[in-house]
Design a protein that fits this description.
By secondary structure, the protein is α/β, with parallel strands linked by helices. The protein has 2 domains: 49 residues, Roll (2,3-Dihydroxybiphenyl 1,2-Dioxygenase, domain 1), CATH 3.10.180.10; 65 residues, Roll (2,3-Dihydroxybiphenyl 1,2-Dioxygenase, domain 1). It has 2 helices and 8 strands, in the order E-H-E-E-E-E-H-E-E-E. The strands form 2 sheets. It has a 4-stranded mixed β-sheet with strand order 1-4-3-2, with helices on one face. Strands 5-8-7-6 form a 4-stranded mixed β-sheet, with helices on one face. It is globular and about 40 Å long.
């Protein structure tokens, strides 16, 4: 089997908030249909968002397990934290030691999907 491409799809009740968040974070653009948005970065489709009006976010990292999450590796955690927060993220679990040589912090995007900002 040859896989031509793969794409991760998020469910969200607010397509615009979700797709705009990820497009800005990835430095990309959004191709929007009524019930599906594709996020492009560097001319390639990277993520998609499908309309799920009754979407409920996972309760993670301390509650019901999530189905998946993204790890986004950054060079400057302080700058990355400020950027994702300005885009509408919520901090779910801060790092044990933000000054450590490696670590992560857990966030939620506008629809409540968890992701981590990681550094090493």
């Amino acid at each position: 089997m040859r896989i031509a491409r793969q794409i991760l799809v998020f469910d969200a009740a607010d397509l615009s908030a979700e797709s705009t968040f990820w497009a800005r974070l990835l430095g990309g653009t959004v191709d929007a249909d009524d019930d599906w948005h594709t996020i492009y970065a560097d001319g390639e489709p990277r993520l998609a968002v499908q309309l799920v009006p009754d979407h409920l976010p996972p309760d993670w990292p301390d509650g019901t397990p999530q189905q998946m999450h993204l790890d986004v590796f950054v060079e400057d955690i302080d700058a990355a934290h400020d950027e994702v927060m300005s885009l509408g993220a919520r901090l779910l679990k801060p790092a044990e030691d933000i000054k450590a040589a490696e670590g992560f912090q857990v966030y939620a995007d506008p629809a409540g999907h968890p992701f981590c900002l990681c550094w090493d």
